[in-house]
Each structure stands twice: as structure tokens, then as C-alpha cells.
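Help! Submission page says 'invalid entity' but I think these are all valid:
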Amino acid sequence: MQNATLQIQVQDTLFVKDPSSSTIGKSILEQGLILLSEIGLEEFTFKKLALKISSTESTIYRYFENKHQFLSYLFNFYWAWMDVNIAFAITNIDCPKERLKRIIRVLTQKVSNDIRTPFIDEEILQEVIALESSKTFLSKKVDEENKAGYFLQYKKLVDRISLIVVEINPTYAYPNALVSTILESSFHQRYFGIHLPRLTNEMHVQERLEDFLTELCFKTLL
Amino acid sequence: MQNATLQIQVQDTLFVKDPSSSTIGKSILEQGLILLSEIGLEEFTFKKLALKISSTESTIYRYFENKHQFLSYLFNFYWAWMDVNIAFAITNIDCPKERLKRIIRVLTQKVSNDIRTPFIDEEILQEVIALESSKTFLSKKVDEENKAGYFLQYKKLVDRISLIVVEINPTYAYPNALVSTILESSFHQRYFGIHLPRLTNEMHVQERLEDFLTELCFKTLL
DNA sequence: CAAATATAGTAGTATTACTATCAATCTAAG
DNA sequence: CTTAGATTGATAGTAATACTACTATATTTG
């Protein structure tokens, strides 16, 4: 099983044509992710990507409606992949406290490329998601996109972790809020640590970020 | 002093020409804010705004370099105004715990238009900032913009509240991280409450949001 | 092997994000 | 009260963006 590839399923509302179904589609994912990490969402265009993969805009449009949908695809891919990672990290662990601790460790760890997913480099993906993911839901189209399942993976994961939170403290009133706060915070605090240090306390150091979020959770829950 | 206007100072790096210095500048602020709240940053263009205020694009460009700078202006205005609000809410309160509690109340409250600031409707401003503020700093230009003082007001406020956190618990290692997490969370959780309810627990209800954040802080600090 | 169909490439349009120029107006100083 | 200076408005223009429609080619199937 060592060489098994990991099939990450993404909603079919998140693409026009499944990019994982063709060579050029995979190239769009792979190079698109790299380009996105290089220049950011605002500067990212399908034209630039087409140039990079020696193809054309119209070809890319056959796979994704627009760059926002492309980002949302990556967003879902990331959380689906993270879900697998988390599931793996907590198998055979019975104690819910230990499970939550391990989840926080996984969430705050810098990931490296997962060779089981061929055309996606998770290290780059995490960087991109950290910077751009808020933009997927902070839009006037949230409700519409939410209906179309744009945030399903993320919601699933929040639910899943919230169940563990409830196990730890069944009387706690805001498990989902706590979990989504931690998820958002894990990105933003690290980002602040690098770019806006005055807003945080050396959160680019993984151990500190992990400690901060773990303490936040357990002090709140116990 | 009842009719006194409140002068909110915004960095001169956040505009080309001070919009508060002329009638048309004020109109850009007032109507720009309204338009932004109506259609969101992605759809917002200076052309549309020019049409709305019966002026031209070139006139608006004389005040702001681009819509990102316009948003950053509003972002700083909001936090500068919030700073005044918070300062007022904690004057004469000596107990740091009580001060923090009151700050969280102010942060989670839905504001209404402050008549002391003529051309800015704070109710609309808060809505806009909740949706768009993350976009001010989640960009490839953060470092550059940070140097130019784009986030000064926000950083000042985080610092100010962090000092109170330190008063409450001088040994706590992550005061700034806790404060910025609460600030970010106050926006996102309310937003989730309205648009992505599965990610939270009825956080669109002010009392719940206030309770959630207050508990988070005090359990962590005490 | 021919017809059907999937896919890529070409060419176009409307809009965006600006910049430049010039005339009209209003304002402030001598 | 006149004139210089600054502000605004109108017009025009450019390069890039965000698409769409059509055409050419490759592949699959009957």
C-alpha cells in the first residue's frame, strides 16, 4: 500500500469539467497552484496560467468557471486532504482530549508534499490556503455558493472536530464556534507572526502556535 | 459638546488627497461606503462610484490610488473610531477584568450611525469591515503596505487591549495573539452565524457572541 | 473507414483599471 | 479686481482582464 495514491474527491459543483480526469486538467491544478502561490489571487489570471502551461484561456475555462471557483476547488481539496490526515492522526486514540490535542498538532504543523497526491504539492497548497482561503467565503455570493456545496468539506471537518469537543465537555455551549475559531486562527496567527508581528506573539513558531491554541481550547473546555 | 464632531485622523499614506478636505471627497467616502456595502469589493469599481456621485473616474483617482487603498482607508477609519468608542467605554473603570469585559461588549455590539462623523454611517461601515477587512491584509503586498502604515490603527488597538490582558494575567504568554484572535473572531463568527451556521453556534445573536468571547478570554486568562 | 464527439486553439467583446490632456471653474494672494 | 494656482470635469486612450463564440483538430465509436 506504500505506493497507493490518495483519491481526494471534490464536489462536482466546483468545476465545469473534472480537472483530475485529463492530463491538461492536472496540469491546470499543478501549475495553477504554483502560480497562485507566486503572485496571489488578485494578480492571478487564467491568461497567465495558460501561458505557463502552454495552453489557452478557453481550455482552462472548460475546467473552471473562473478563478474564484478554482480557488474554491483548492480550498475543498485542502480540507478534504486535511480530513484524511486528521482521521489518520487520531485512529486508535480513544481519549477525546488526546484526540483534540493531536488534531491541533496536525492543524498547526507545516505540512510537506504528500506524494500520494500526484499533481498537488501540499506544502504550497497550505501556503496558498493560509493566504487566500478567507476570500472563498467572504463574498457577496456566499449564500449561493454555500447552497452549491462550496464549503462542504470545511463544514464537515468543523462538525467532526466539534463532536470531539462535545465529548470532552458535553455542557459547553459553543463547540462549533470554538473549532472554527481555532481553524481560522491557526492560519491567521501564523500569518501575523510572519507579516504583522505586533498583532501576535511569535506565532510563526509552530510550537508556540500549537501551545496557544491547545491552551485556548482546554482552558475553555475544562 | 453634544454637537461636537469627531475628527477621525487617517494616515496620509492612505489617500492621495485627503477626502475629508473637500465636498466631493466626502461624497466619495459616503457614497463609496454605501456602494461597497451594496455590491462588495469584487464588483466595486471607481466607474460605478463615479456614476453614483455624478462625477468621473479621474476625480476619484485624484483621492485614492485604487479601490484597495479606499478599503484600507475605511479599515483604518473603522478601527480609529472603534478605539475612541472603547476608550470611552472604559473611562473611570479601574478593574482590568471589568475593562476587558466592556471592551468585548463594545466589540460584539452592532453599532448604529454615529452622528458625530458626518459622511460615514458606522452601521454600514461595520457591515463592510466585517466582510472585507481580512482582504486588506491577506495580500502579497502586506509587507509593503505595513511599512506604509496601512494597519497602524489596528495594531495600536490590539496593543492597547493586550496591555489590559497583561494586567489581568501578567504571566500569560500570548496576549496579542489572544486579542487579535478575538477581534477577528468577532467578525467571522457573526458572519458564520448568518451565512454558514454549521460553522458556529448562533453567533449572530449578540449576547451569545459576547458570552462566547468573554468566556474564551477569561477561562484562558484565569 | 466514416460519423460523431470531445477537446484545443483563434478571435473577438465588454469591462476594468488605470493615465493623459485640456478646458472650465473656483479660490487666494498681490 | 485681477491674475496665478489649484481643483474638477470631460474626453480620450491603453493595456489587461474576464469572459464567449466559433473553428480546427484529434479521438472514439459504430
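Support: the input was valid. A stray whitespace character was the problem, and the output above is from the cleaned input. The domain at 73-221 of chain B is CATH 1.10.357 (Tetracycline Repressor; domain 2).
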